Amino acid sequence: MSSSTVSICYLSLGSNSGDRLEYLRRAIEQLQVHENKILVCSSIYETEPVDIKQQPPYLNLALHLETRISADLLLRRLQAIEAHLDRRRTIRFGPRTIDLDILFFGHEIIHKPDLDIPHPRLHLRRFVLVPLREIAPQWYHPELSLTVTELLEMTPDRSQVERYCGPLT
């Protein structure tokens, strides 16, 4: 991808360990580098854990990002931000300081050992779909041929996802 090519992507951010709001703030700050521009940020939602229930609730949000880098390089940047913010990959689906996922990268379909776009479980996760619907209700899933709103209506996930009304400090 050339430096003049701009791609639209959607990201999911989540945190349930330590100062959740601060980890989200710091991740957003680090995403705003010269090749990335955040166009829209959803509200913050407090969500119950899905796969491993015995852990603290998450704070989640979705971002609409414009980037001048490839999906592979964006993934590496997200992983570097996670590492910088003390993300430890000890238990799959376990507690984490920060989790950054690429949901969509334009309408590209990418299946590589280390990168799946669209995100393979986004249609099964209310904590992803509710914030995403807020900022991109009509975005079209290129493999499932459904909008984000339709995906949310059809998801089997019934976990709690509520707009966060807690302290902002």
Account of the 3D structure:
The chain is of the alpha+beta class and 169 residues long. It has one domain (7-163): 7,8-Dihydro-6-hydroxymethylpterin-pyrophosphokinase HPPK (Alpha-Beta Plaits, 2-Layer Sandwich). The protein contains 4 helices and 10 strands. The protein is globular and about 40 Å long.
Any descriptors?
4 helices; 169 residues; alpha+beta; two-stranded antiparallel sheet
CATH evolutionary superfamily: 7,8-Dihydro-6-hydroxymethylpterin-pyrophosphokinase HPPK
- Oligomerization category of the chains in this entry: single chain
CATH class: Alpha Beta
* Overall 3D form: globular
The CATH topology is what?
Answer: Alpha-Beta Plaits
CATH architecture, by name, is: 2-Layer Sandwich
Tally of distinct domains:
1
Query: What proportion of the residues is helical, as a percent range?
Result: 25-40%
Biggest β-sheet: count, sense, barrel?
6 strands, antiparallel
